[in-house]
Amino acid sequence: MSGRRQLIVNADDFGFTPDVNQGIVEAHRRGILTATTLMANGAAFDDAVRLAHETPSLDIGCHLVLIGGRSLLTGRAYPLTVPRLAAALAGRDLRAYDELKAQVRRIVEAGLRPTHLDTHKHTHLAPPVLDAVARIGEEFGIRWVRRPFDFPMSSLRGAIPAMKRVTSQALGLLRRRFQRVLERHSCRTTDHFAGFQITGRFHTAELVELLAMLPEGSTELMCHPGLCGEALRGARTRLKESRERELEALIAPEVRAALERNQVKLTGYAGLD
Fold it and tell me: Tell me: the pLDDT tens digits for 117-136?
């Protein structure tokens, strides 16, 4: 891949609310978004499945959820925070493999063929969740898994809060085990990842700048576009108005021009080498 820059622009939260679904599809049809990951326990799952079938060029993956929402197996609410999830996993009150397998199965049974896996709130950084995700990826033949470790973005310093930058650097300490587990289950990742540090904080200008910084190889850019309608305003999430700003950036002509200027090729996971 030397000398080439491939970019997957992947939206989280497909199936969260109808207005988020609408924004994701608009970002694909009118902009640079190439992929999205579907929440099997999302309130707007059926709407997202319909849109996915109507938009076959949109690369579909699974957004696996263990924080927020409800279990497909028991109907019980999942923990609302990472510490509560950690306690539930440690006490075996929640079995990550069984829960996540049910979510992937629901997406497959809806007639979709997911190509990639990621997790809500990056919970697959936790060893028991990563083990479950990698095992499920191998069993379902879904070989691509998100690597949630941002590449260095020093020139975007003004757009990234200091605590977010420190957290991103700390997450990098988990890379070695993360890669070993995926390799053991024949799963792969892109060469690079971006989006954690700028979640909810980027406009068109920051996206144009980021495209100029992309390293050679394949990169996944995580994003959260959407329309901020009544359903999203009433949902439990901090990302509301910011989703419309991200949508505006993803469809901006300046961003399309930046792709061409920097010789970045858009692709989905299905199109990776």
Answer: 999 999 999 999 999 999 99
Read off the pLDDT band of 234 (50, 70, 90): confident
**47 pairs with which residues across the strands?**
none
Q: What mean pLDDT do residues 20-30 have? A: 97
Identify the sign of the CA torsion 189, 192, 196, 200: negative
Which residues are CB-contacts of 84 (< 8 A; sequence separation ≥ 6)?
Answer: none
Q: What are phi and psi of 150, to 5 degrees?
A: -60, 140
Separation of alpha carbons 214 and 231, rounded Å: 35
Task: Tell me the pLDDT tens digit for each residue of 41-84.
Answer: 999 999 999 999 999 999 999 999 999 999 999 999 999 998 99
Contact 208, 254 (CB under 8 A): yes
CA nearest neighbour of 113 among 145, 140, 146: 140
pTM of the model: 0.89
Q: For residue 186, what are its two tokens?
A: 């024949």
Q: Give per-residue pLDDT as tens, 83-113.
A: 999 999 888 889 999 999 999 999 999 999 9
For the chain, the first-to-last Cα distance in angstroms comes to 9
